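Subject: design request, 105 residues
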C-alpha cells in the first residue's frame, strides 16, 4: 500500500516550512474528528452522510500524496451514494495508514 508523504505539501509551500507545519497542524486537528464522524455514520448505515464524510476526507488523502488511495476513496464515495459498501475495507485501511502517519510526524 502507498504511504502518506509530504511531497504535495512541500510543492505547495515553496520551501516555507512554517506553512508546511501549519497545514500539518490543521490536518492533525481535523482528521481524527472527521474519521470518527465517518465511522459513526458508516456503522449506523447512514451511507449518504458517510459519503459526505468520505468526500471531506478525500482532500486530506490528496494532500498527503495518496494518489491511488484518492481514487479508491472516490469510488467508495460513489458506492455509498448508491447504498453499496464495496471498498469499505480498503477505505478503512487507508484511514488506518493516515492515522499511523499522523501519529509519527
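Subject: RE: design request

Done. Sequence follows.
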Amino acid at each position: 500500500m502507498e504511504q502518506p508523504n509530504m511531497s504535495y505539501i512541500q510543492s505547495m509551500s515553496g520551501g516555507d516550512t512554517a506553512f508546511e507545519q501549519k497545514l500539518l497542524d490543521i490536518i492533525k486537528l481535523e482528521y481524527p474528528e472527521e474519521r470518527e464522524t465517518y465511522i459513526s455514520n458508516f456503522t449506523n448505515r447512514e451511507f449518504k452522510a458517510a459519503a459526505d464524510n468520505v468526500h471531506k476526507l478525500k482532500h486530506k488523502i490528496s494532500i498527503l500524496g495518496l494518489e491511488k488511495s484518492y481514487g479508491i476513496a472516490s469510488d467508495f464515495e460513489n458506492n455509498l451514494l448508491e447504498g453499496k459498501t464495496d471498498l469499505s475495507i480498503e477505505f478503512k485501511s487507508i484511514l488506518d495508514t493516515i492515522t499511523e502517519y499522523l501519529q509519527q510526524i
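Residues 20-104 form a domain with the Four Helix Bundle (Hemerythrin (Met), subunit A) fold (CATH 1.20.120).
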